[in-house]
Amino acid sequence: MSALQFQRKRDKRSWENPQGLVSHTDWNRRSVKYGLGTAQAALLLLLVVGGLGPILWLAKGAITPTQDTLIQPMSVFPHGFAWSNVSDAWTQVDIGLYLWNTIVIALGSWACQIVVATTGAYALSVLRPKWGKLITGALLTTLFVPAVVLLVPLYIEIVHPPLIGGSYVNSYLAIWLPEAASAFNVVLTKRFFDNLPREMFEAARIDGCGPLRLFVSLVLPMSKPVLGVVSIFSVLASWKDFLWPLLVLTDASKQPLSVRLPTVQGQTELGVFLAAMLIACLVPIVGFLFLQRWFLRGTGLSGALKG
Amino acid sequence: MSTINPTTPTLEQTEPVPPTRAPSMVAGRWRLRRTTLSWIRRGGISRLLFLLPLLFVFGAFSWYPIVRLVLMSFQHTNLVQPATWVGFRNFSEVVHDPLFPIAVKNTAEFAGLALIFGYPIPLVAAVLISEVRRRRGLYSALAYLPVVIPPVVAVLLWKFFYDAGPNGVFNTALHWIGIGPQPWIESEHTAMPSLVLESTWANAGGTVIIYLAALVGVNSELYEAAATDGAGLLKKIWHVTLPQMRTILLVTMILQIIGTAQVFLEPYLFTSGGPDNATLTVLLLIYNYAFGNSLGGSYGEAAALSLMLVVFLAVFSLIYLRATRSWSSE
């Protein structure tokens, strides 16, 4: 075997198995081959049943007549279809409106989080104001205060805002703006900006590039990876949020799906309700299937940040 | 290019800044005006403008509520009359509430069970997945899928699965393998484990992905060295993989404890704290103090309990980090 061939083979192996816990010789050993193979097959079975099973069950229930689901919940094939469940979800439960509300809330939160995270991180990382260290410190402290313990003071602030007066109950601003106060986003973005090549900024500045143009035409286009991660997390988090919208959106016609579903459960036929739940998780699931790499990279990155 | 001082990467400092900041005796107004002017000329305004969204949002929705939380826990507030100072009365009322020890015990039970169920599973899964030779992406996608399902949908779906009748989804499945129907969330003995089971299902995928990312970072030379020393697969996992991952393992553990200490959605939607307060958690108690139907409006007590929770978690984290410091930075 020539050196080149050997090298290529090694490369291929290292691509298959980047960290090399189980070496090539290990794989050839019988106990490893069968033991590990069986464990992995069992894991795949568990993942299919556990990860995919509930969603497939929900999808089946959504198009199965209610009585069938109640009597034989675990039969693989439904006895007859009830496509009317889905249309009933739109007409009876008005799921379209709540889906729209969820989208509006998610997009607004996304926009606010992106604006705050990018401008804030840009100021702290690139412009570096005198009080930058202090502000960064104050941001890091908020990482130690879980959002839910601020529920009560935030709620009172929304009902009786200081200085401006009025009440922001039932206003989407009451959801968008507090969600933008995510230190995690700012820290993640700031770390990314910290690693951008500083020589490029210097060169742009010498060419007469002001801070705004530097931000819009240099920093932002270079930050697609971190913007993607922040975007996915912000949309997903807002889609999943329940308690805060439940508190501040008391008007049913403004509530998102997550708040509405538990309320309508009591007055809705099971089949229709399952169809409504399926619609509620369709957007995140389809989004995940298309943007899988971004989801997984972002989660790995967040782990690295916390570590 | 040589005129640019490489030690001052700050963009706006184009013109030379006076090297000394010693207060001059002739300072006075002139100096003040001059510093303001040079602050503007050095881009102070644009810096401030860029910081403004962050300062506003964090000021209004993070820093202010934190201060307000501390103040409120010593006040009586009912949103109608001005708040009055009551000293430690809120705290003593919370501590003497018969529900308080129940909520603390239940939350500890949830966190403990979640650690027993939920901590080893993602690690084992991640190690197995990292050694998959084909279709590794399929494994991680399947593991992550429950994470993207909205928690409300997940809980309501599992609530149906947990139907205690013989025709319930899980009870039918148990019947196939010869186990009788379980009461699941309807009995005070099985309710909490049922909630933990759902919560583990919903959250384990994220941890698997974090571990997978960490596993890639393990130095492969160590494996080779271990293999040269004749270490088998299990020995390599025990002596190389786990020690190499200890930092991330310690961090995910504390994060999981902090996360489960704030569990709300599961007890709220599954059982509303029942049966017989068996799943009443600290956060559910906070919610009931402030917004619950029967109690409701006790914002002072809710703030006091929130403050106790956050202080407890902070102290716990500090002790944890201290205790594990030598281990993690070894």
Could you give a short description of this structure?
Chain A is mostly helical. Chain A has helices at about 5-15, 25-30, 30-60, 65-70, 85-90, 95-125, 130-145, 150-160, 175-180, 185-195, 200-205, 210-220, 225-240, 245-250, 255-265, 270-290, 290-305.
Account of the 3D structure:
The complex is a heterodimer of chains A (307) and B (330). Chain A is an all-alpha fold. Chain A is built from 17 helices and no strands. Chain A has helices spanning 3-16, 24-28, 30-62, 66-71, 84-91, 95-127, 132-143, 151-159, 173-180, 183-194, 198-206, 211-222, 224-240, 243-248, 257-265, 270-290, 292-306. In chain A, helix 6 runs parallel beside helix 9 and helix 7 (132-143) packs across helix 10. In chain B, helix 4 (99-118) runs antiparallel to helix 12 (246-261), helix 5 runs parallel beside helix 9 (191-216) and helix 12 (246-261) packs antiparallel against helix 15 (299-328). In chain B, strands 1-2 form a two-stranded antiparallel ribbon. Chain B starts with 27 loop residues before the first helix and ends with a helix. Chain B has 15 helices and 2 strands. In chain B, a hairpin with a 7-residue loop joins strand 1 (75-76) and strand 2 (84-85). Chain B has helices at residues 28-41, 44-72, 89-96, 99-118, 120-130, 136-148, 151-161, 169-176, 191-216, 220-228, 233-244, 246-261, 265-271, 282-291, 299-328, and strands at residues 75-76, 84-85. At the A-B interface, helix 3, helix 6, helix 7, helix 8 and helix 9 of A face helix 2, helix 5, helix 6, helix 7 and helix 8 of B.
Distance between the termini of chain A: 43 Å
* DSSP strand tally of chain B: 2
Strand proportion of chain A? under 5%
Q: How do the strands line up in the largest sheet of chain B? A: 1-2
